[in-house]
Amino acid sequence: MAGDLATTALALVAVCALAAAALRLLGRRSRRRAGALQVVAQLGVDGRRSVVVIEAAGRCFLVGMGEGPMSLLAELDPKEVAAAQARAETAAPKSVLGEALKRVLLGTRSAP
Question: Is residue 70 part of a domain?
Answer without folding.
Answer: yes
